[in-house]
Amino acid sequence: MQRLSPEEKRQDIFDRRNQIVNYHIEHTAFYRNKILGTYKGDWNSVPIMNKRDLQCPLEERLSEDYHKKNVYVNKTSGSSGDPFIFAKDKWCHAMTWALIMDRFQWYGIDFNKSLQARFYGIPLDYVGNTKERLKDWFANRYRFSVFDLSEAAFERYLQKFKSASFEYINGYTSAIVQFAKFLKGKDLILREICPTLKVCIVTSEMLFDGDKYLMQAVFGIPVVNEYGASELDLIAFQNLRGEWQLNSDTLYVEIVDEHDMVLPYGEEGRVVITSLFNKAHPFIRYDIGDIGVMDESSTMVKPVLKQLIGRSNDLVRLPSGNTAAGLTFYYVTKSIIENDGNVKEFVIEQTELDSFLIKYISSEELEEHYKSKICSEIIKYLEPGLHINFERKHQIKRSGSGKLKQFISRI
């Protein structure tokens, strides 16, 4: 696809987006029912969908050629507050990884050889933890848990950087920023400690300019901004010219207004994305829940994201003095989400140093044993002595950007 001329590439995008719509109209009853009465044969009449449109059992959403045993199945993090289970056919999933590998190669990273310093969460139960550690071993990466961002933990991380030949850092922005602040406090340059480092790639949360400058200064390497969504693909990746280049190989990205009309480049609106290869599950004109602006220099072949608004997660501050990344609650949502789609939306608010409030919208009230399980999971990932309260809501207020943040700190 990348060898096509600009005109060939443009035609290829048009063809692929039409083909994926027609495929799901023909083969996916769920999508056919959703689009019925709206679609008039042209792209602008294809209805925009969001996560709540997809919150029904996965089996009801799969196309007729696919079932759970021949697709890749996963859960979204719920970082936007709308969790659900999704699927990709295996070719689409392979294309996702081919694209990620392609983009990382821009910075000299070879997935088969380059050792990754991975700042992510990890399940704490024996089976889940062992599985992730095994995957890390096969994927040539070493995991630094974001559940503990204490000075003692950072001292251990620093010792690992002294002994391992890491080529790149990858992970949650807020956790990596905290590590950078730790290094600054010790007046250290990470590349002097680990000279094999080439680049730091941050994801999942907003990267602010001040944090980027800090990381580049104390790491001694470029800091690259990645924007993606597990149910879709890598959406945008900073290229060597510093542009946040949108993925036009496997996705079709649009910016629309409140009336679902496509906006000119340079205007702020909702980010709507079509997965061009996913035949197992329809993600067509899918409102991801973000607000963004495409750069005026954009073309269909090379779209550039000028600004993304509202992807920041606050830090969790704890009575012990420790901190953890707001995305720690990604792992708690593994307990909240069920395939029946009972929980529609949720936010977790930290109201006091030792108190958290979970606001949620659901078809049915959460049972007490289920609440107890969630409480124990939060305490397991954070620390004992925390108070967790639940409040079922009919509606959860969103931010001015339209984003529903999963974690909000009120302290």
Can you give a write-up of this model?
30% of the residues lie in helices and 26% in strands. It has helices at 6-27, 29-35, 58-61, 90-105, 126-138, 151-163, 173-185, 190-193, 209-219, 329-336, 368-381; strands at 71-75, 85-89, 115-120, 141-145, 166-172, 199-203, 223-229, 233-238, 244-246, 251-256, 268-275, 286-294, 305-309, 316-317, 323-324, 343-352, 355-362, 387-392, 407-409. By secondary structure, it is of the alpha/beta class. It is built from eleven helices and 19 strands. Strands 4-3-5-6-7-8-9 form a seven-stranded mixed β-sheet. A four-stranded antiparallel β-sheet has the order 10-11-12-13, with helices on one face. Helix 7 (173-185) crosses helix 9. Strand 17, helix 11 (368-381) and strand 18 form a beta-alpha-beta unit.
